[in-house]
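Model it.
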Amino acid sequence: MQDRARATRKVLLESAAHLFVERGYAGTSVNDISDHSGKTSGAIYFHYSSKEKLALAVAREQFATWPQLAAPYAAPGIPPLEKLVVLSFGVARSLSEDVVARAGARLWAERRGIEAAVPTPFDGWALAVTRLLAQARTQGELAADVKPSAAAVPLVCAFFGLCTLTDDLPGGLGWGEQFDQWWLLTLKSLQAKPDAAGLLARARARIPVRP
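Modeled.
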C-alpha cells in the first residue's frame, strides 16, 4: 500500500473511531465521517465499501494492538500472575485512553445493530489468561481449587465489564484505582499463598510510566 493511501486510511479510521465513541454506530453516518476527516465520501467508499466495513476495520485495529501490549512481558522471569496483572493494566489503559480501542469496545457492545460479524475480544483474551493461569499452576502460584480454563472466561468478562463501565461507576474513581480494588479482591481467590497487595505493588512497578 502506498504511503498516501496508508495515511488516508489512518485518518479515516481515527475519525470514524472518534465518532463511534461519541455517537455510537447507529448515530454515525458516512457523511459525518467525511466531515470529521476532511475526506470526501468517495474517498471513504474507495477504501471501505460501506460503513460496516469501516466499523470492522476499527474493531480489528483494536485487537491488533494485543501482541504489542503483551510483547514486553513475554520474558520467562516474570511470575505468571504478576504478568497477568501487568497485562490487564496495559489493556485497560488502552481501552481508556486510545480512541480506536474505545471505539472497538463500543462497536462490540453494539454488534447486534451492525450488519457484519464484529470480532470478539473474549476468545483470544481467554486463551491468553488460561495459559498464564496454567503457568501459575505449574509454578505453584495458583490456589489448588482454581482450574485455569474454568477461571479464565469469568476473569476476562469481569475485566472487560469493568473497563467499559468505569466511567459510569459511583465514587468517581479512575480506571487505575478501580483496577487496584478489583485485583485486590480477585487475587485473594487466585493465589496459593494470598499476598494480593504485594503482588499488585510488584506488578504496578513494571507498568511503563507515560510521558
